[in-house]
Amino acid sequence: MKYELKFQIYGIDEDSDLAVFEIDLPPPVTTDVLMPIMAWHEGEHAMASQLLTARQISAIERLAMIKFPRNLRLYISSYL
Q: DSSP H helical segments within 2-64, as ranges?
C-alpha cells in the first residue's frame, strides 16, 4: 500500500540547532508536485529532511501561497 506523504517546512536560527518555525504545507503540495522543485528522482528521496535553496523556497511559497521567514535556514521534511 502506498501512503501519501505530508510535508512541513521548518526553520532554524543560524545560532541554534532548534526549530523556531514550523508550518505544515497544504494538500496541493504533494510528492509528485515537489519532485521537480526538489530535484528528487524517486519518491523515496522525499523521506529525508533537506535544506532548501532560495529558488526552492520561492517555488514552494508560490505553490503553497505561503510566505516563509527569510532570517532562518529552512528545511523541508515529510511525515505520514
A: 31-38, 54-64
